[in-house]
Each structure stands twice: as structure tokens, then as C-alpha cells.
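Many introductory courses stop at the sequence. We go one step further.
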Amino acid sequence: MGGYSSEYAISIKSGQVVCQYLPRDKYEVYAVHILKDRWVMVDDNEKEFPIDKSDFSVMIDAHKVQFDVVFNAIHGHPGEDGVLIAYFELLGIPYTSDSSYQMALTFNKRDTLSVLTPYGIPHATSFYINKGDVIDTAAIVKKVGLPCFVKANRAGSSYGISKVYKESALRDAIEKSFAEDDEILIEEFLNGKEVSVGVITYQNKIRVLPITEIVSENDYFDFEAKYLGKSQEITPARLTEEQEQLVSTLAEKVYKKLRLKGFSRAEYIFKNGIPHFLEINMVPGLTAESLLPQQAKAAGISLSKLFDNALSVALESDK
């Protein structure tokens, strides 16, 4: 848990919940904090024990502990973008989450869209900018229209995102996004019902979880709406049977075309009755209030079963 990004504190909360709900009669659980200045195992008394990065082990009271499997609860860099996963792959340590390539791909919003587009996955019209590019605001508005969303390409939890109503506000929004990433995605505003769909591998089968409808009290589903109670999250979503079938089928198709196997939670907005893909999260929030656990609960899957299954999949994949 932890990480190097703006999502560090949220990851700590997710990791603490995982530690709480993993069945202790089956697992010996260690809380490992991956931080910029140190990697440490933190015990129940908040005492820290340094992690040996050469083999991802820890010395506890002169006893060397080597881990059988890693539960990845890091949102953002380096846990969600494939960097840490590649390290575990090199060491041969099983892990939850997808492979390093799939994690890197899905963390990059632009690359994800480029893979999905040939399969006919509907999504918003977009415009790309890299740091150092000449910013032509007129060209941006001509392509995506107003209002539009300016997003950091590789960031989560709505960090580095702005909804822009006037061309004159574009440059400030772009600079805000550049504070999070040197690549930016600018998308048209899709005006419609927003839903979040969890798709996981559960008991060796791909399972689409009950859908959550997002009703933000703010202008969009921003950080406050996600984490500070400024939204309604309605599970199951208020959808017609046709809408539910359309978005569930699309979500499973996205999961399969991206060749995923771990947890995933993707957002969609209905435009003219058609669900449009926004983005996908491979290490979604795992607190009891987070969307994926809400959806799992609605499907009759407890947090303990959800987390246990993730480790079982990781250990089985390693055989």
C-alpha cells in the first residue's frame, strides 16, 4: 500500500481494509508500505521494519520473512502502472493485479483508447497534448467542443482534471493537468447517465458485478464527489433492462479485449442511449465504501471472499 503518487493516502486506507478482512486462519498478513523515501513493513504497533529490495524480504527480530504472494493495493505509480508488478515478475513473486504490460496499458488512458477503438468500443472524441507542444486552443475547441474535460493521461482519483466551459480557460486547465503528468487527454463532454461497472475474475470465471449509478452533487464526479460524500452512488443502478444489458456486455467485451484477469472498474456514460467508455481502473478503491466492494456486496460477495479470491487467483496463476 502507499505509492509515490497523489493517491498515496487513499491507497493506505485501501491496504488497511485488505489487512482487516483477509481471513487470518488462512493467511499470515503483513502490511508493507511502499513510499518514496522508504519501503517498510509496519506492524500493529506502528513499528517499521525495512524491506530488502534485493529480494523483497524483511528481517523481523532476526527472522527473515519472505512473502508467498503480494496483494497490490497501490493506486497510481508504481503499483497501478506496472512498474512494481514488473519488479515482482523479475523476482518470481505471485501478485494480485494484472501483468505488468496490462497494468501499464490500462493506466495510460490514451493507449487504452487506441487498443479499444478498432473493436468498435464507443468513447468520447479526444485531443492529445504532450508537455512542450504548441497549444492551439482553437483547434482543441473545434475538435472536442465546449464544455470539455482536460485530464492528466496517467493519474487517478480525479487528480489533474478540469471541466472547461470557455476557450480562455483551457490553458490554465492544461497547466493544472501538467502538474500531474506530462501527457494530457482532452475529451468532449458526454451529457448523460454515468455508471461504474466492476468486472473481475471470480472463481475462475469473468464476472460482471452489479452496476453503480453515479449522481454527483458537484459539476462532475471529482475528488470531493468520490471521497468526501459529494455524490450518490446507487447500486444497483437505475437502468432499464436494455441499458443494463448494453453496458454489461460492453464492460465484459472491454475486459476481454484488454486481456485482463484481475480486479477492474470502468466508467461509462450513456450518450443517445449508447454507453461510452471513459476509463478503467485496475487497482480500484478497496474500502468498504468504495465502488467495487459496494458492487461485490450487492452480488453477495463479502470483502473477505473478494480479497481471498484475489490471492487464490494470484497463487493459482503462479503454478
